[in-house]
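Q: Start with the shorter request: fold the first protein.
A: Done. Sequence, then structure:
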Amino acid sequence: MIHFKRLDHVLIPIPEGKKEEARTFYSDVLGLKEVPGQHPGGALWFSIADIELHLREEAGGTYSKRHPAFEITNLEEAKRELERRGIEITYSSEIDGRQRFFFHDPFGNRFELLQFVA
């Protein structure tokens, strides 16, 4: 069983070459605070309520890295359970202070499970 704690972030795609336009819209129009740093894939991160909104440039097409990310309390146990059920686990770039992995549901939707580490 997976012990969900909270929604951590949502990643949504933006067209290639539109990063500065997105930064202006989300910062100036919506008034979100940008989370500084060098983020995976050159993404922009913003604080929104008690979660983060991640924006990442993507080429058009059917494949997307968009996903919700859920913080859980038992990452290794969740990984073993999903693998036991035949669900493929994938990994991405590392983020300091977080362990994480990805999986897809039967319909191709991508999900991230993560756990903060000291």
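Q: Next, the second protein, separately.
A: Sequence, then structure:
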Amino acid sequence: MTSVAPVTSTPTTSTATQSKGALTSDFQTFLKMLTVQMQNQDPLNPIESSDYAVQLATFSGVEQQVQTNTLLQALAAQLGVAGMAEMAGWVGMEARVAAPARFDGAPITLAPNPAVGADQAVLVAYDASGAEVTRQTIAASAETLDWAGTDANGAPLPAGNYSFRLESYNNGTLISTDTVEVYSRIVEAQGTGNGTMLVLEGGATVAASDVTALREAGRS
């Protein structure tokens, strides 16, 4: 927490200071422009006092908008840090997400979701290069299953990242091909301009909003 505090507080203070300095500078510029305008007005056709009031009101409105934007930026920064702190509690848990999973000899839990009307489903596994390594028929249901990481002859596949797709068939006709969600352990939570990102075991990075389920590591 000691190392985080300067990171979260300094930008807000710096932004507020810079905005205040900018507003002060702009106000001084406005006064100079107003003075020059008064000095160079046509004595026979002077500027109406109501025009000055309109100009001042316009500047005040801009000033308030700048201050509002500064406050909103500070609030967004605070909410972003709070969101990342909450997601940090996910580190060490397993997330169900459509992303490549790391295989190191232990089975990978998959969550296939056959298309509506499918009477047959085929699970296809791909290695990190995108090459197909296994193809097996599974039950046409949404129940989770453990992928053992073996080839057609039962020999273990090499360690690495694998992704999965599910082919859904009806009466022998392919009706859908979908990415299969997997359970992968979360190793890091990162705050970015696009929200909180989660780094999974194996290196895949996904948005926290893409996670559809969480569970304790090691559960099946």
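Q: Describe the second briefly.
A: The longest helix spans residues 49-88. Helices lie at 4-39, 49-88.
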